[in-house]
TrEMBL record:
GO MF terms held by the record: aldehyde-lyase activity; transferase activity
A GO biological-process term: aromatic amino acid family biosynthetic process
Record-linked InterPro entries: Aldolase_TIM (IPR013785), Class-I_DAHP_synthase (IPR052899), DAHP1/KDSA (IPR006218), DAHP_syn_2 (IPR006268)
Name the record gives this protein: 3-deoxy-D-arabinoheptulosonate-7-phosphate synthase
Taxonomic superkingdom: Bacteria
Pfam families: DAHP_synth_1
Keyword presence, Cytoplasm: no
Amino acid sequence: MTINSVSVKQVTFGKQPAIVIAGPCSIESEEHIFKEAQALKAAGVDMIRAGAYKPRTSPHAFQGLGFEGVKYLRAAADSVHLPMVTEVLSEYDVEKLIDLVDMFQVGSRNMYNYQLLKLLGQAGKPVLLKRGFSATLKEWEMAGQYLMSEGKASVVYCERGIRSFQDETRNTLDLAGAILLQAKTKQPVIIDPSHASGRRDLILPLSKAALAANISGVMIEVHHNPDQAWTDAAQTIDYSLLDQLMKECQPWLTSN
Ligand code: PEP
Ligand code: MN
């Protein structure tokens, strides 16, 4: 089955090999993101993720470094020649961020924000569209259509877990849904096992399962000192686990 390619600088989604996006949940300081970028490059990942505008459940929790954070991420990604993706929370920020980011991330909570989707559709940068945690496949697919029907955006869909009755993981990874959506839309679909499970010990097996099923990539939260990560510590892996993941996923991460 041929999947439409989506290119972000030197990275191409939708072709072999599969793509690994990794990085901390949040940018904590300039020094922090430079240090993570160095380690991510050494680990051999394709692209860096890190949040500057954080959609937190509590308004009292750390909200991210905002625009300054995106500037730090830009410089850190450039220092190791890797492309980056970061979340845009509001349509008010699109213009400000457009020349700084390589790919816009639309978060789960914003999947239904049609004004933001339309604006990003006109902006002309690739978009990583996370699935709303209560969204049906059809709603997720249509959110991507909002982006693509404006004619300029290319879309990579990201399954990040949906809400279910199961309460021992943060969310429930809908791998079947991810596979179906990729077959139906022919757009690349990746999974985010970090937000899907909320648990470090599930990142490796979920990544392998998805890559074995021909999913186009994974996005993983990594930190030098996961226990000290300012956000999402419980699901953030360290570099030794990332190395193990890169090794065990080799069959899907090298072209053949
Ligand atoms: C994220 O990836 O940084 C994030 C906030 O994820 P989600 O929108 O899926 O909750
Ligand atoms: Mn996170």
